[in-house]
Structures are given as C-alpha cells and as structure tokens.
Amino acid sequence: MSKVLIVEDEHIIALHLKKILTNLGHEVLDICSEGNDAIIAFDKHMPNLLFVDIRLKGDITGIEVVKKIKEQYDVPVIYVTSCDTESTYIDVKSTNPIAFLKKPFDEFQLKANIEIILKRHVESSIKYNDLKKVSELQELNILELTETNSHLITATWRERELKDELQKTKLLVEEQNNKIMDSINYAKRIQQSIIPNKEVLDKLLGDYFLFYKPKDVVSGDFPWIYERGNYIYIAVVDCTGHGVPGAMMSLIGALLLNDVVNNQTTDKTPAELLNELHFGVVKTLKQDKLGNKAADGMDVALCRINKTNNKVLFAGAHRPLYHLKNGELIEYKGCKFPIGGMHYNNENNFKDHEVMIEEDDSIYFFSDGLPDQFGGPERLKFGPKKIRQLILENQDKPLSDLKNIFEESFHNWKADTKQIDDVLMIGVKF
Questions:
Q1: Each residue of 289-298: pLDDT tens digit?
Q2: Of 8, 40, 355, 384, which cross-links 312 as Cys (Cβ 3.0–4.6 Å)?
Q3: CATH superfamily to which 197-429 belongs
C-alpha cells in the first residue's frame, strides 16, 4: 500500500484523512500544515502519495509545494480543498494531479472516493509499467536487428559493384526493421554467386554428388572448385559459425582462394594453397596484430585432381578425405590445425597426401555439420562411423542415389531435433 504525506492546514480534517487512510491500509508518514514544512517532510520521508490542501498556513500554497516537489520527483498528488474557482482549477491541472477532492465531505464518501482513486492509480501505474516494458523490449529488438544488419553489410562489402545497392538496403533495414529478412535473402543471392553452379560441376567432375543443407538462410559452409590448366581444384570449406557471420567468412574464404590460385605462377599443391590461404585469413582479419585474439577461420578439405591420370593430392585443415577403393574405405586425415587464428604462432604447415586413384574409385569429403548433428532415439551425434557405413553399404549404387540416401538418413536422424550447423558433403567417382 501507499506511504502518504498529508499537507492540510485544518488539523481536524488532517486527522480525519489519516484515520481513513490508515483504515484502508495505507501508512501516513507525517502531517504538515505549512508549505515549507511539507517540503522538508517530503525530503525526509520520501512518500509515494501526497494529499495536499491548496490553501496552507504560511506564504506558500499547496500548488506551489507540489510544483517544487515535482521539479525532482514524479509523485502522485490528490488535492483536498474547498476552493473551487476557475483559476484554481487551471493552476491545479498544471501539476497533473490524479484526483481532486472537494471539502466538505462525509466520511463514507471520502473513503469510497479514495479507494476508487487509488485503485485507478494503481491500475494506471501497472498499465504504464507494462507498456514501458513492451517499449523497452521493442527497442532492444530494434537494436539486435540493426546489429544483424551491420554484419550483413560487412559480409557483402567486398562485392564492390553492389556497394550502392547495399547502402540502400542498409538504410531500408535501419528504417524498417521488419524488412531484415529481405536483406538476408539478398545476401543469400550474393553467396550463391560464389558457389559453383550445376553446369560447372557437371562439366568438371562428371560423376559426382553435392549434399548441401545450410542451417540458416545463408551459410558458413561452401563448396569451391577451380580449373587451372591440367588440374581441377575442389574443396569443402567450413567457416567459423553459421548464418550471417559464417556467410561473411565464406565470402572472405572464396575470394582468398580465387586470389591464391589466380596469382600463382606454378601449379601449387593443396598444402601450399592452404598455407597461403591461412596467411591471407590472418592478414585480412588482422589476427597478427597485438591484442587481436580473434580465432575466426575455417576448416578445409582440398583436393587437386589431375585430369589426365586422375592422380589426386589431398590436404586438410581439421577435415579428412575418404577414399573408396576395391570395397575398402581408406581415410586420409587432415592436419590438426585450422585456417586462420594464431594458436600455432602462425606456424601452421599443411601436408599433402597422394591418393592413388583407379577406375571406379570414389572420394568423399564433408564439413563437420553432418557428423556433429544430434539425433536418433538417444540424441547422439550422427558420427563419422555412420558416414563410413552408408558409403560401404551403398558402394554399388550410383552417386545420385547415394546423395538421396545421405539426405534421407540425415533427415530421419535429425527428426524433430534442431539442426546445429551447416551441412556440406561432396562425392566424386572416377
């Protein structure tokens, strides 16, 4: 209930008010008959409700007392007075009281009016606080959406030819936060422009499958392929994170891989490309600067296929390669450090594996989103073992069928469990 200060120059009326308020469960902290005493009592007791007469003893009116107090504190006020001139009402309204009780009044009427007034004030305060919380929550949502938009703009910044349109998108999202998904879908189109399309893959790989299932609209995983002379470079790249942050890293990774291959004077091995990619990520993200502890980067499985003899070189950063040969599945492990970050003092040194390929052999490489997915009756990880099992059990089937088998197995395993990461897998048959 309320803690009340009564400011009333008629002592009998003040005691009458105190009695009624006390019976209603309120605590009367003090009674003052003069304005200056009322201001001192307010500072001393800090009540949360005032009952104020307009005419007081001394040279300060009740209205002046309320104005003085409300310069610092927003406290509800109920005026109790016998003065009812038009000018008085105008002065009273300027102080925003919650009620105006006119003297004289009988005890029953006063008690009923006080109960109604205070009940309405409490209800009004509750509604105000609820609206305030809703407003604060909406402001927080706007801030979060604006931050997401900022990530999106950074991710697409490197595509210089789209700078003007992205600026327009940024302004639109800042003005209308409910349009944020339009911007994310736009980023998806940009990301899809760096991913090799079906025509390119059909031409360079022939018999293959691509199982690609992003967790969100945009993805931190992406397939990459590049033809140079007598070689085809192909990779599965798994960037830090997923969604918009992962998409940002995927743009950086794709651009850096293209730069590394384009600028080489000789045909580099996968390990050499990974070493240069690592150096490029460190420099791009300024991870070699003092105090920068960012560990953003990517895991990569990278192959170089000789188109003449199908000889394959493989190098991996945290990712393996599976080689199906004569009914046996051989695993080539990647190195135990990623692309990017300074955990190894920038001394990451990737190694090549030579894979001897014969006709009807096949290779498989994938991001960690597939083996790490939780599901099944016991909510366990899909796991590398299940991947190897599916490859061996279906080795006589076309790769197009194997793709469908992996997609169906993943879907059934996940069931109603939330997808935890982007999923990417490539299989190639020779």
A1: 877 777 789 9
A2: 355
A3: PPM-type phosphatase domain (3.60.40.10)
